[in-house]
Amino acid sequence: MPSSSFPTPHSELFDYPKYWAECYGVAPFLPISRAEMDTLGWDSCDIIIVTGDAYVDHPSFGMAIIGRLLEDQGFRVGIIAQPDWHSADAFKALGKPNLFYGVAAGNMDSMINRYTAERKIRSDDAYTPGGMGGSRPDRCSLVYSQRCKEAWPDVPVVLGGIEASLRRIAHYDYWQDSVRRSILLDATADILLYGNAERALVEVAHRLSRGEDVAQITDVRGTALLRKDTPDGWWEIDSTRIDRPGKVDKLVNPYINPRDMDVSEKRRRDAAMYGVGDPETAEKVEQFIPHPSRDRDRTVIRLPSFEKVRNDAVLYAHANRILHMETNPGNARALVQKHGDADLWLNAPPIPLATKEMDYVFGMPFARVPHPSYAGAKIPAYEMIRFSVNIMRGCFGGCTFCSITEHEGRIIQNRSEESILNEVEQIRDKVPGFTGVISDLGGPTANMYRIACKSREIEAACRLPSCVYPGICKNLKTDHSALTHLYRQTRKLAGVKKVLIASGLRYDLAVKDPEYVKELVTHHVGGQLKIAPEHTENGPLSKMMKPGIGSYDQFKRMFEKYSKEAGKEQYLIPYFIAAHPGTTDEDMLNLAIWLKRNGFSADQVQAFYPSPMATATAMYHSGKNPLRKVSYKAGGVASIKSPEQRKLHKALLRYHDPDNWEMLRKALKKMGRADLIGDSESHLIPSKQPESGHGYHASRRKNTEQAHRRRTGKKILTQHTGLPPRDAGNS
To answer: Is residue 672 domain-shared with residue 703, that is, in the same domain?
Structure first.
């Protein structure tokens, strides 16, 4: 990014002098045992990464990305994967690390990985050999950090990964139904790196290697740490001066450029923001008051303390709103939140990686297969992605239920076409079992590659949470030509027979470029294409920050047109969420009617899962809407918390399942919609149960599908949510 847009990072990733251990060269796999270390000639590891996932040396797995990057910086890196956490013994397996332990739960939050949205324990784990559950503890990174401290108390622990990233601040914990303090305190780690933390991690590693005390590393972007108080030279702003909960005098926008304000307006703003009493007093002290737009790198916003947000749900929603307002690397300020006697300090978000840095990260010498110690055991998550390529990071969609933006940021970070094509060739040449089919060219979103704001200056100054809601921003370039060209070049590679797109498609963006849609539909759909309208009703959609169903209809018409022109029978698979905040029973009923009318039969459905730190989770917990100014008197947001109502919302999505009919009959009568019960095509559910009454087994489903197709001429499509959950975030 040019200096006019974002602050210049201290150094590009590949500009650091290599650590002395570079002389050991590249390991075929990063060692997971002392025997492997001996083979490599190592007497010790400089850095040990502890992870909740099995070790797969592939760029879709966080420990591989981080491990190979640190190796290229010259460090000797070992891996402790899925250790026995019941004692510290397993954490000593590779000896004492010279510099630090790097701890992460893995590619998924360990709680979302282990528990369903109904808080039931899952029996499987896609990131474990054999797919078996139980190989990692709850709040995995927290437990691992504590064990590392038990193993070697004097070794710094650097906490990272999506689990830590989403818990970097006081956060609502769905599984305990309470607000927990920052994971940094409970984990007793020394520093926390949030987001895709390559830039921060490399800087921290080199500074520790030069003998710097971890407690003195306080100025790295994208880090969280503990302090006793605000250091000298910093200007502190109370967050309630920016967005005060409750009835107060109208505040002038604190983000307006002072040069665009007249003198009296500026004095009123300063009086309100800095609490100096009145405009006259503000005039007297004006020369001593720094302004965030001029001194942003030395300004910190104080959020309500952990104790306050734990006990006051409105203040929790307020803090969540402020946090999300301060996420753009171009204008974000540091945040501080008191936890007891200590201040939790969040430095500003990391500067996005430039394309050449992304190429560097993904160009490491990955083996692209699981570690040989697993003896060929299937690791489901690897099987899913081994023939796929990640072409970008980030998402500017801002969906309130999703953790991608909170973890990866909203600025799209792109790889070059050359780098992507080179990885496809590596898959062709190195990965066992390749048949010529690339399973995905995508990322968090399939079609945001090389899409950005038309102005870097506007992008760096923007505080909007989404570039595509409530409509496509006029400043967003929607040209998909770079992605279309990438698709065409990938298809030309020798040995590549088919390139599929499996990442979720942002269809409201795609319709702005019909040539892209035609290219996608003609060449890159394997019979079915996943998209996520999430709902049909404006109430829940407005709380999700998703477009209206009209955008889906527009894309569907284009999809069907180009499928017909290509002579292909292809189908859209829409995803929907049940029980999202702001959803009424009537909303879910209207969605069920829409599904019936359009011939969709959802085999699996996804209920809203309140992940830590998400905006929708703040809605769920507080009953307030952080997308707007939060106040005690503001209107509420309905939260679907009772198991009975959540079950009803899921049942309405699966209106076709006889196991749900008895519940739905009672609900429809209670809602005054008994007219939807009957045996004609116009009814949602029949008036009687099937004679056998033994559930919705496969033969009954087949009969239901055949009957529906005879009546409507439409094929019922099955919706599969897959593993991992699509809003669980990335490593």
So the answer is: yes
As beta bridge partners, residue 529 has 572
Domain count for the chain: 4
Find the angle CA(615)-CA(640)-CA(125) to the nearest 5 degrees: 70
Rounded to whole angstroms, the Cα distance separating 247 from 249 reads 7
> Does the residue 178 lie in any domain?
yes
CB 546 within 8 A of CB 580: no
540 in the same domain as 491 = no
Residue range 131-154, pLDDT digits in tens: 999 999 999 999 999 999 999 999
Instruction: Tell me the Cα Rg of the chain.
Output: 26
Q: What's the pLDDT tens digit per position in 167-198?
A: 999 999 999 999 999 999 999 999 999 999 99
Cα separations in angstroms, 108 against 393, 403, 478, 556, 727: 16, 11, 31, 32, 10
Give the model's pLDDT for residue 692.
Answer: 65
Q: Closest Cα partner for 52 from 173, 147, 186, 155?
A: 147
Range of the domain at 262: 231-339
Q: What pTM value is reported for the model?
A: 0.88
Please choose, from the candidates 24, 106, 103, 464, the residue with its C-alpha nearest in 3D space to the C-alpha of residue 255.
464
Domain match, 392 and 310 both: no
Are residues 105 and 241 located together in one domain of the fold? Answer: no
Q: How far, in Å, CA of 513 to CA of 510, rounded? A: 6
The CATH code of the domain that includes 429 is 3.30.750.210
Same domain for 602 and 730, yes or no, is: yes
Query: What are residue 214's phi and psi, to 5 degrees?
Result: -60, -30
| Same-domain pairing of 167 and 298 | no
Is the pLDDT at 120 greater than 80? The verdict is yes
Which tens digit of pLDDT belongs to each residue from 273-316? 434 444 444 433 333 344 544 578 899 999 999 999 999 999 99
User: What is the Cα 400 distance to its own chain's centre?
Assistant: 10
Residues 6 or more apart whose Cβ sits within 8 Å of residue 526:
498, 500
* 3-state percent breakdown (helix, strand, coil) of the chain, nearest 5: 40, 15, 50
Three-class SS state of 317: helix
Closest CA to 648 of 670, 636, 634, 663: 663
> What is the phi/psi pair of residue 728, to 5°?
-85, -10
Residue 355 CA to residue 419 CA, distance in Å, equals 10
Q: In terms of DSSP H, where are the helices of 276-338?
A: 279-285, 306-311, 313-325
Does one domain contain both 447 and 576? no
The residue among 490, 508, 524 that closes a domain is 524
Peptide bond into 724 cis (omega under 30): yes
Query: Does 289 map to a domain?
Result: yes
User: Mean pLDDT of all residues in the chain?
Assistant: 88
The reply to whether 193 and 94 lie within a common domain is yes
C-beta of residue 324 within 8 angstroms of C-beta of residue 166: no
CB within 8 A of 260, min separation 6: which ones?
Answer: none
Reference 663, options 680, 675, 649; nearest CA is 649
Beta bridge partners of 224: 192, 346
How would you class 274 by CB atoms within 10 Å of its CB: exposed for 0-12, middle for 13-18, buried for 19 or more? Answer: buried
Phi, psi at residue 51, to the nearest 5°?
-135, 150
Domain boundary among 200, 222, 244: 222
Please report whether residue 98 resides in a domain. Answer: yes
Helix axes 643-653, 658-670, angle to 10 degrees: 110
